[in-house]
Amino acid sequence: MSRVLIIEDESDILENVSELLALEGFDILTASNGFEGVKVALANQPDLIVSDIKMPELDGYGVLLELRNDPRTSTTPFIFLTARADRESMRHGMELGADDYLMKPFEPQELINAVRTRLQKQQQLLEDQNSRLSKLRNNIVQAVPHELRTPLTGILGCAEYLLMDYEDIEPRRIHDTAQIILRSGRRLQKIIENYVLYAQIEVTIADEERVNAMRAERLDYPEVVIRQVCEEIAEQAAREDDLLLDLSPVTLGIAPDNLQKIVREIVDNAFRFSTKDSKIEIQSSLNNRGYTISIRDNGRGMKQEDTRNIGAYNQFDREFYEHQGLGLGLIIAKRLTEIHGGKFDLNSVLDQGTTVTLTFPVV
Which of 151, 199, 271, 272 has a CB 3.0–4.6 Å from the CB of 188, allowing a cystine? Predict the structure, then answer.
């Protein structure tokens, strides 16, 4: 049974609306003024609130503002009852977070339909959210153990080999084994660092002071940072000839390490998911939108549905392709870009390639 709170200072309207919705099977809470309505809402957390606008002391707008600022009621559906529904007042209510308006006098069925519609939409939002959380949990359960265990197995296996046969192993074999340990260790290190960084980013997004401090950083030569990262990745992939750079100078409000991380994750993907002798093009330029960095490959590409679902622990088409990492790279790059006031756009065509465009405000 859905719980509905009705806030109305006119007793006859309060009684009529309460009886009408009670007959429809709703559990009814009532309040005769704005202050009481806020108190009842916070104490009982109703599924929906119906409130008059014009009330003494604390009006409906004040009630809505109070409830939207409290996490317990910040997303509760809210319907206004009003004898005045001009464009300006409706716009003001919508900006505060109202979901619907009903003009007095209204037909009983109008109120019932409005209440049912808002509750159905809220239920759909909850179901969608639960579905996303369930998918996230499944992705974590599937990805994390595998991604941690694989490099760790390589490290432990090589270490056991060296300990058991150290007297008979040739120097060259020791060197090769050490390289496997180093590669596995670096892979494990990146997984852990990305996991920690992603958690830090999600906390930072809600910290306005921290976000402002990050945007107050200054980087005078971003093209140098971009070039260094791209050339390093190309060298590691033994594909220096595939890298095409066309970079312009500017000053950005971002720390070098953060720009480096953004570019590294995207360019690393571009090389990993494209083949040798296919070009990776990185361009940057200053235009009326800001400073734009474009990273384009001619690799495997992604399905359109996958580009819309970029998020933590998502690894697309893993049943067909072997991935390394927790799928955090793109979402970390996206979040860091947005924290710095930038825009992250991804355009991908399956079997044709991917272009990521980053646009940052110029200092």
Answer: 151
287 - beta bridge partners?
290
Question: Tokens standing for 146?
Answer: 């595998």
User: Which amino acid type is present at position 224?
Assistant: V
3-state secondary structure of 116: helix
CA 54 to chain CA centroid, nearest Å: 38
Q: Which amino acid is at 53?
A: I
CA pair distance 10, 122, nearest whole angstrom: 28
**Percent of residues in the chain assigned helix, strand, coil, to nearest 5:** 55, 15, 30
Peptide bond into 46 cis (omega under 30): no
For 168, phi then psi, to 5°, come to -110, 0
Q: Cβ of 353: how many Cβ atoms within 10 Å?
A: 22
- Enclosing H/E stretch for 43: helix 34-44
Cα 215 from Cα 199, distance rounded (Å): 19
CA angle 305, 311, 314 (to 5 degrees): 75
Q: Dihedral through CA 14, CA 16, CA 21, CA 25, nearest 10?
A: 120
Q: Whole-angstrom Cα distance, residue 250 to residue 219?
A: 8
Tens of pLDDT, residues 109-141: 999 999 999 999 988 888 887 776 676 566 666
Q: Give all strands (DSSP E) within 116-254, no chain letters.
A: 243-246
* Helix (H), strand (E) counts: the chain: 11, 10
Residues 57 and 33: beta-carbon distance below 8 Å:
yes
Rounded to an integer, what distance in angstroms lies between the CA atom of residue 58 and that of residue 54?
Answer: 9
Q: Which strand ranges, in their side-by-side order, compose the sheet holding 290-297?
A: 243-246, 280-287, 290-297, 353-360, 343-349
Beta bridge partners of 90: none
What's the pLDDT tens digit per position in 28-60?
A: 999 999 999 999 999 999 999 999 988 988 998
What's the pTM value of the predicted model, to 2 decimals? 0.58
Q: What does 228-257 look like in DSSP terms, one character per residue?
A: HHHHHHHHHTT-GGGEEEE-----BSS-HH
Contact predicate 3/27, CB 8 Å: yes
* Gap between the Cα atoms of 177 and 156, Å rounded: 11
- How many angstroms separate the CA atoms of 356 and 330, rounded? 10
CA–CA gap between residue 327 and residue 320 (Å, rounded): 15
